[in-house]
Design brief:
The complex is a heterodimer. By secondary structure, chain A is α+β, with helices and mostly antiparallel strands. Chain A has helices at 60-72, 76-85, and strands spanning 5-12, 19-24, 27-32, 46-50, 53-58. In chain A, a hairpin with a 2-residue loop joins strand 4 (46-50) and strand 5. Classes of the chains: A alpha+beta, B alpha/beta.
Chain lengths: 99, 376
Amino acid sequence: MCLAIPGKIIEISPDNPDSALVDVVSVRRRVDLGLLQDDRPKPGDWVLIHVGFAMSKISEQDANDQMQTLRMLGETEAALQEVKGYGLEEENGSEAASS
Amino acid sequence: MKFVDEFRAPELITRTSEEIRRLVDPARHYRFMEVCGGHTHAIYRFGLKDLLPDNVELIHGPGCPVCVLPMGRIDDGLALSQQDNVIFAAFGDMMRVPGTHGSPLEYKARGMDVRIVYSPSDALKLARANPDKHVMFFAIGFETTAPSTALTLMRARAEGIRNFSVFCNHVTIIPAIRAILDSPDMRLDAFIGPGHVSTVIGCRPYEWIAKEERKPIVISGFEPLDMLQSIVMLLRQLQTREAKVENQYKRVVPWEGNRAALKAMAEVFQLRPYFEWRGLGFISQSALRIRDAYAEWDSERRFDVPGVRVTDPKAAQCGEVLKGVLKPHQCKLFGRECTPEHPIGALMVSSEGSCAAYYNYEHRKTAAATMLSQTA
């Protein structure tokens, strides 16, 4: 839950400026940009993501360092599992969110 | 100990570690508290203790949200969710936390509708997808996660989604630090400040620690080099008898915090007069409740909360460990009745809990060394 996951903004949703497609180590999911209203990220920017919300803009170098930290902490898997879980892709199925 | 050359900038780590050795006064014992559970995990994982002189002691703080939640709150949340047509949604970290009659996962095995979500907005999504059910999001976390819950509630209200509510257990870090400083059995020299909480609250809320308590505090990143550099900064302050707030994690933490996040929190939450923390007892103005304007989305007002109060199992010494008075392995249950596979206290559940971190890294290492020495 307290993981800070670095992701790159790929695209801002055309019908919702608070929703962006991000790439986290090739996994692509939608995250919420609503907490960065004062300093909106653009496609190509890097952000740190907590529980599905982008919390801060960071540099590409810092994003790489953060990924390395997660690797060293043995948390890469947990981070990817979290990102894959965003949006309840298999929702409606009662088992979608359980594991 | 991990090999230093696995880390980024190994030569810098070695130099920083040497610098620490130069700065410490050998006649003095230093007690630094890392407030954040993420730091606790990193310290054990990286074997940071091995890079520090023996007289620099790291005390694990209260910054693991799962760990500080009293069992009664879990019981209350689970009791509400046992009503017909209620879906209990929570982060994965919560799922194995024991309540009096089992963890959420065990309730699920008994047929309760329990879902793991990775984001509060996904709990809201569940509500949209299940209009004939009520989705209760069991919210936990410090200021890192509270703004996301706040924004989710704002969206629920804006969209008029009425089959959704939040059982709010959000807590705030500053009063917990104050409670620790007020505790008579606690003597600390300085603080390693939390990294990600500070991206939201910024650095100003810590100023009283420096001004009133005369204790240095350095907001720190999570890499080994970050934490070693933070310790250097603390030692330098102590050497010159200064006490100020410094920001080692500038690349992520702005001095002023995240204004949009603070605004969302202020819109949705207000401080509770008091809240119970596991191990620390009742702390005034230390937790968030949902404002009247959002009462309809507040599980505690929508439903009758049993208001369960449970004392921790007598033999378990979670409270003492949480306050840093005991080391994890000094608890009578540690590694025997209480293990990550069968946790009795929450400190053993979360990877950020000091007991689980100690068990996974230190205890296993010691056990292996004992075994080796016996076979040698």
